[in-house]
Specification:
- By secondary structure, the chain is mainly alpha-helical.
- It has a domain of about 80 residues: Arc Repressor Mutant, subunit A, CATH 1.10.10.
- It contains 9 helices and 5 strands; from the N terminus they run αααααβααββαβαβ.
- It has a 3-stranded antiparallel beta sheet. Strands 4-5 form a two-stranded antiparallel sheet.
- β2 and β3 form a beta hairpin.
- The chain is globular and about 65 Å long.
- About 5% of the residues have low confidence.
Length: about 325
Amino acid sequence: MAARGTGEGGDPTAALLAALRQLLRPIARLVIERQITFPMLADLLKVVLIEVARDEFALRGKRLTDSRLSLLTGIHRKDVKRLRSELDREVGPSRNASLGALLVSRWVADPTYLDEQGEPRPLPRAASAGPGPSFEQLVLSVSKDIPVRSVLDEWVRQGIVEHDASDVVRLRVESFVAEEGFEDKAWFFGRNLRDHAAAGVHNLLREGEPFFDRSVFYDRLSAESIEELRRAASEVGARSLREMNRRALALQRRDESRPAAEASRRMTWGAFFFGAPYERDEETSQDRTPTTDANADPVGGATSAVSGESDEA
């Protein structure tokens, strides 16, 4: 019998384990570098398995017992009992990181804070400077709990904005990246990879209309070519993020008039670029061999539609 949602014969478990082995390699590098040992990682995996089994595999109208959780996950009942107290313990971003992401998102998407070319306006620091938008107005539109001056001083220190002698504030980056604070970076790292993985799992299990999940990959490139592509990816990605940010903000405001039960969905749209020396040994047996088929992608390059997503442009 095929695994749930695969609709395929063969050995989907072996294919999935091969994919997970690739997925976990950079994670393994990270945890070794940060001195997270296997017992810590094993307990974390057990907690996540129990949490997902509890949230998504409960039987309607029946109490979810330790025995059922043990049956679903393969984790011993005494470990299930011990680890259930760890469920739902989640660390969020610091207040400054989450506030900063909201502020930058609004500055680059809200027409109030954009000039005629659609670029973020330089903003006078104080609302008293005139009738137009100000940095003070921007901060207060997101939070009234943190002093505007504290936000400005911290952003100047991090290089996110410039504050000139005429008391005008200019945005220096078009996306918020916490330059300091490993905890904040790690939170966004986990959140972004979680949603990308969730889109792939949705597609693999064929749980509905596939989510968009595509990539372009090439080898046999020089370091100079990689750098040129990195710059191009940054430009294309920034444009895409700004466009999606503006659309999402406009739709969110439109949906404010809807009942809460109708406006209860969330979304994530992202972009990434990666370049490294190519080692064929890194790939599994599923590595695509370059082809000379006239209708195929160029030798050494390909595009992918991940796990069931339509191949139409």
